[in-house]
Amino acid sequence: MRTAFALLGAALVITPAAAAPVTMQIHLTGAEEVPGPGDADGKGTASVTLDAAKPEVCYTLDVSGIDTATMAHIHKGAKGVAGPPVVTLDAPAEGASKGCAKADADVVAALLAKPADYYVNVHNASHPKGALRGQLGR
């Protein structure tokens, strides 16, 4: 019995602690939009928080200088590459939005492992493929 408790205690000591949540700050511009053009007058910021232990992406979006936003996503795509959406965010229709969006655990893991392979994109009626874009990164 003593051996079992000793082994259990040793396992608890060497088990790594859960990783802390990671927050990324992203600058959004029309110039980064691919395929362009995005909205040359627009700008914005996004804050994306990821926690490997939770199947969600928490975020805030703030935009200005664009027509009313109709959609927002995190897409898979390296800088200069357009890609498919992987997480849907609430559009900052009034200039701002925030919340936590459900995401598959493998998507959260991929975002944490290679954030530069993903970007935040804000769409509107005059720029349906994207008015503003910014790459994730640490």
Automatic annotation (TrEMBL):
Pfam families: CHRD
InterPro entries: CHRD
Signal peptide: 1-19
Domain CHRD, chain residue ranges per copy: 20-138
PROSITE patterns: CHRD
Keywords: Signal
Keyword match Signal: yes
Protein name, as recorded: CHRD domain-containing protein
